[in-house]
Please model this.
Amino acid sequence: MARLALITRGDDAGSSMTANRAIREACKEGILRNVSVMVPCDALDDAADRLKDLDHVCFGLHATMNAEWSRVRWGAVSDHLPSLVLADGTFFQSVNALRDNQPRLDEAMDELQAQLDKGRAAGFAFAYADQHMGFGRAIDGFDEAFDQWCSKEGLLNYRPYHQRLPSVATEAGDPVEQVIAQLEAVGSGQWAIVGHPAYDTEEMHETGNENMSGEDIAKDRAWQRRWFTDGRILDYCKMNDVVPIRYDEAEKLY
Model:
């Protein structure tokens, strides 16, 4: 038995071609074993084509009801969902803004189903579902409905399997060394690390909002790609019996 079973998850496939390329690298050359797909975004078809041969990867629906960037926007797959979207049809930037609009549970569930159906039609065999930005906390009754819906659709709800690596106070020199320090701190058990792999490209520079520029987003997510691909991470996992696992290989923690 592995000393440490590590659920490795890359979010935001489909959000951009840059993300799709980086996620592919992290799966092929690194330890990424779970990929969460954003169905409402423009690069969905590119993701389906670019990632279709990754048989060792577990794909999940990254259920999406927020669009956090100022210039790069996406909206609902379904029509007539006034409680979930702005006047232009795009999602609210923040979970708090969504909550303030008093989102309706029935509209959220309709949109969830539409995203799942569209993702499956694009070719993804989803095994689990999670929530972009944790939007469910903005919708009364969503957690219970989401759990029941996952069971009905044959999806794993990520929550019972998911225990993120804790933050660790460290003087480590870069984000890769910080992840290694986190792995050292937990020692053993089943844990999860979630990143948003990307490269520092002009496409990523188009992201950003009032809190963080697109250039800073690009640099940060280029580091997050290296959480799964850097030689130091690969060597640490090999030498310390850290095994990357899929959600469908994980044990329920509660």
